[in-house]
Amino acid sequence: MSEDAVPPAVRKQLHKYIALAVAFGTVTIGIGLLSVQARKQGLIDPELSWRANQVIVGLLLAVYANLLPKMLLATSRFTDSIRDAAEAKAAVGFSAAMSGFARVTGWFMMPAGLVWAALGVFAPRDVAVTGGYAALGIAVAVMIGYALWRSVAYYRTWGSF
Amino acid sequence: MNAVFKALADPTRRKVLELLRQRPMTAGELSEHFPVSRPTMSAHFAVLREAGLVEASKIGTSIIYQLKLSVLEDALLGFAQLFGIDAAERAAADATHETEAELIPANRKHKGPTK
Q1: What distance in Å separates the CA atoms of residue A43 and residue A31, rounded to the nearest whole number?
Q2: More confident residue, A136 or B64
Q3: Which of B59, B67, B74 sits opposite A91 (nearest CB)?
Q4: What are the beta bridge partners of residue B65?
Q5: Contact residues on chain A for B57, CB-CB shorter than 8 A
Q6: Which end of chain B has the least Cβ crowding within 10 Å, N or C?
Q7: What order of strands is seen across the sheet that includes strand B54-59?
Q8: Cβ contact (<8 Å) for B68 and A107?
Q9: What letters, b where the CB count within 10 A reaches 16 and e where it falls short, cover A8-28?
């Protein structure tokens, strides 16, 4: 689909959320590089550097997951391309599925990010690593399972995506 | 954030958000659930749109509203519904107690021998 086919309001939203994702990535990499430099110069010890990174990554994940349900376009099918009532119903159904997916993902990923950050602060290193990955793994499993379930349900109702 | 609190403070708007949790709905379908005029409902929809809690799309001649809550806003809505319901029940219970308290002395005045 060419860029001209994307409605302006949707394009604006897309640009906004792409910018947000780039900003998050930049902050994560920037803080990582800063902590490496600080460690090399002896300003902080390796343990503190590792824990600081854990907290930053966990909090960024929590913040991004919190915003995930809002990063949903008005309808996942662009309204300008809808030709008839049947397509409109399918578009609404698709949006409902996407909305549910984003909500479930946000609700599981946000606590996973907070658990990751909290364990990075309070827990011994091995517990923090295991616990953090376990929380994240559960959130990803739920996300994939829910996406598959909604996809199958949508396909059974509408026959195609 | 002020806009979000303002939007969630009204029980009608909270009910709209609860309805949209089930599925996206047209403005007409949402309005059927409330005994208020269409202009009043349009004003509520406008407050929700300004707060960024719903997304409106025009499909044909219909406007479809869809929920657009972050996780924290979703949790705030849950708290507002919980405390809003509790507050309403308490207010109703207080009003009932006051009415009974007023009635009982009045009833006792009328009791007594009628000879």
Answers
A1: 15
A2: A136
A3: B59
A4: B25, B56
A5: 74-75, 79
A6: C
A7: B25-26, B62-67, B54-59
A8: no
A9: eebeebeeebeeeeeeeeeee
The token duo for B22 is 């089930």
Complex prediction ipTM: 0.75
Q: Does A81 touch chain B (CB under 8 A)?
A: no
Give the residue, A38 or A84, on which the prediction is more confident.
A38
In this structure, of A83-87, A143-147, B69-73, the range with the lowest mean pLDDT score is A83-87
List, for residues A95-123, the tens digit of each pLDDT value: 778 888 888 999 999 999 999 999 999 99
For the residues of B26-78, what is the DSSP string, one character each?
A: EHHHHHTTSSS-HHHHHHHHHHHHHTTSEEEEEETTEEEEEE---HHHHHHHH
Q: State how far residue B65 is from chain A, nearest Cα, in angstroms.
A: 9
Is there a contact between B64 and A96 if contact means CB atoms under 8 Å apart?
Answer: no
Chain A residues with CB under 8 Å of B66 CB are: 72, 74-75, 95-96, 99
d(CA A79, CA A90): 11
| Count, residues in chain A | 161
Q: Which positions in chain B have a beta carbon within 8 angstroms of at least one beta carbon in chain A?
A: 23-24, 52, 55-60, 62, 64, 66-72, 74
Angle between helices B71-110 and B11-22 (to 10 degrees): 130
